[in-house]
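Subgroup meeting minutes
Present: P.N., E.W., G.H.
Scribe: E.W.

1. P.N. recapped why we're keeping a running log of single-chain structure predictions: easier to compare across weeks, and new members can see raw inputs and outputs side by side.
2. G.H. added today's entry (590 aa).
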Amino acid sequence: MAVGSDGVVRRRGCSCSKEDFFPEESFSSWAAYGRALRSTGPRLADRLTSRSLEATELHEVRARSGADMKRDLTWWDLAWFGVGAVIGAGIFVLTGKEAKEVAGPAVVLSYVVSGFSAMLSVFCYTEFAVEIPVAGGSFAYLRVELGDFMAFVGAGNILLEYCIGGAAVARAWTSYFATLLNHEPDQFRIHATSLYEDYSRLDPIAVVVITLICAFAVISTKGSSRFNYILSIVHIGVILFIIIAGLTKADTANMRDFTPFGARGIFASSAVLFFAYIGFDAVSTMAEETKNPARDIPIGLVGSMAITTALYCVLAVTLCLMVPFADIDRDAPYSVAFSQRGMNWAKYIVAFGALKGMTTVLLVGAVGQARYLTHIARTHMMPPWFAKVHPKTGTPVNATVVMLFATAVIALFTDLGILSELLSISTLFIFMLVAVSLLVRRYYVTGETTAANRNKLVACIVAILLSSVATATYWGLDRESWVPYAVTVPAWLVATACLWAFVPQARSPKLWGTPLVPWLPSASIAINVFLLGSIDAKSFERFGVWSAALLVYYLFIGLHASYDESKALAAEAAARKVEDGQVAPPTNGK
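Output recorded in log:
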């Protein structure tokens, strides 16, 4: 402790008092908490209908971090962050499993489907990131357009996405590291026989890698960017080597049985391979640190996704041309493929490149997930201690360390297969919500949109969602008749056409806009929901358990903390308007 010249007592170093975690009035005493719990109903109704303002997110909420994040990123940084965030464990690990067991050589079509879905989501994210350039990413977008409660649901799944995504990549890192040293991956893991089989292979190397990434991420965002694009350039070089060297060993006979598992295998594989595209949303969280968001974000996001999709498809074709799909290795498909084709030396280059790629994925994920948690904590849905930005480094140290600690714990225990499928559910769900938010943003403005147009908008969005869910559900039931699709698909088309024809847009983007609204976001909703219908039931059970846990936390803690904070933010926003001359100050009741 220290006393300043003004007589105020200040803490030195890390502050971890109750005020740092629960400073709100509802938690000031047990009696206050009891009163808050008795007001759960009215407070929940308030949070269900309340929507944040863009100005509030950009000013009052951002100010909760104390120091500002440094604005020193350009489109070059964002593009390489995008490539580094995406190309990693998905292509180097999951391609083998999906080609061998689920889709066959048609895995390339699975990458096309999931890449198309990801690109639609990229366009939706880009408009939001340009118009609302804050660290909260999709959490901030949902808060502004769908309200606090939906934002919290999204926030929980965002945090889950990043934790299990990082854990999956870290475990895959161990697999390729083992290949580089001529060992089996499980030889580097500890078998705890007393645990369930899917959680019994402990991975200490994954924990060490995550710890090192954490140390780098808290030092500097710009430094992380430089490290990322140096590694990414090397990684692109290795990918080009895999394509060129692999195609010299191509055998078109391996592609004759192109769809051994049929269309269902293609779409089931697409749902899992969506994991390979996850990471681009981390780039949207860096909007707050971007010099010129209107120019840099569209180039960085759309450009990196186009490059990634093209590389994924060519890599998948190369693998399936090298070896028959039944002979593809599950854990290290490219390395083993080169060994099978008499190029044993090449597997070391492949393993080295894979490690480079997965390292950049972990680094960008660490940067992105910390910024998500920072902005969530700024609203007090999570304790505000996580929102602190270090004044010297300009990075959210607390959020970075805590998120990577959680990631390390999951990586230590959990099998990659479980992680990838659960990850795809939470991510597809978030991307669907962001597309819905974009429709709301374009077609509804409080105080301007008429009640009739608002009702038509709600009806159209509900029809789009229901027709998409019906299509996905019937697909998931694995029935042969095409008749239901003849109803659900035209229903989606009609709902989207009605939105386009009968509901006027209430807002135009100021700086950069998603093209083909409402068709593009509506298609994003449909394809994300459809891919959800291709995921297995056990993954949905795990997703349900997580969602239930989120709801319990929200009702007992998050709701009351964010309710109190929203009132404080509203008061600050009103005071700012008075200072700016937008509203006349009170005149003592006269």
